[in-house]
């Protein structure tokens, strides 16, 4: 077993002491309490075993990301989740199995969904969104050509992303709060 | 292409929408010192903020993958920008790497490592 750099080890121990309760609170919104403890322990162990390869300034972000990945993985496999066929997690499970079976189909389906989401944006918002994100124009170029401020370009991009996300969520059959409600029942 | 990042599984909508505001603001834009400090303070203040930011910035960067099928996108007839050479997928724009790029690169490296050890 690789021995962790003592400085990193001390830093990680301090992070655990300082942020453990914050991480537990964040995970508690996603999982049952008994799962949360397990996830935090597992994430901490994984980070500890990989301290050699992690930059000291990235330890906290790495620890949080590891815990999040484990939590999502756990969510997808919880028995209770499978009882709620209409929920997003079920849809994701189904999509995952589709992805395993036919990744080409899944990629095309996902791409088409994103195209549909963008095509449903209001016209000006949609054009700003496409100019920036697909064509690669700078915000300044877009602002000058459309005679609007860079701040307004930002607002269109923000609005476009929010609307795209809402469309994708609705398409998955996921309505506001349903996952949270589901998880409280778990 | 996965759509998971857009959904922010289990994260409150208001936090995901705050992340969207930051991703849009930091995308190729110039921000002042106060905004930069505000961003890092927000990012650091809760695990959910980090998760939402990582996932939305990943979703945002993946949109570049639609360049190959951009003919499918409907453009408003009243708005045209001068023709230009299409940018390569993943290539930074001419303003160089922005703060968002660096933050995203760092977080993606963290994510990749985290993925490896899962």
Largest sheet of chain B: none
Query: How large is the radius of gyration of chain B?
Result: 16 Å
Amount of helix of chain A:
over 70%
Ranges of chain A where pLDDT stays below 50 over 5 or more residues in a row are 174-186
| Average pLDDT reading of chain B | 77
H/I helix tally of chain A = 10
The total of beta strands of chain A comes to 0
Count the helices of chain B. How many? 5
Based on the structure, what is the oligomeric state of the protein chains?
Answer: heterodimer
Query: Main beta sheet of chain A: strand number and arrangement?
Result: none
Characterization of the model:
The complex is a heterodimer of chains A (186) and B (118). Chain A has helices spanning 6-28, 33-49, 59-77, 79-82, 88-101, 103-119, 123-133, 139-146, 150-171, 178-185. By secondary structure, chain A is mostly helical. In chain A, helix 1 (6-28) runs antiparallel to helix 2 (33-49), helix 1 (6-28) crosses helix 3 (59-77) and helix 2 packs across helix 3. The relative contact order of chain A is 0.10. Residues 174-186 of chain A have low confidence and may be disordered. Helices cover 55% and strands 0% of the residues of chain B. Chain B has helices at 4-7, 13-26, 33-44, 47-62, 99-117. In chain B, helix 2 packs across helix 4. The longest helix of chain B is centred in the last third of the chain and has 19 residues, at 99-117. Classes of the chains: A mainly alpha (186), B mainly alpha (118). At the A-B interface, helix 1, helix 3, helix 5, helix 6 and helix 7 of A face helix 1, helix 2, helix 4 and helix 5 of B.
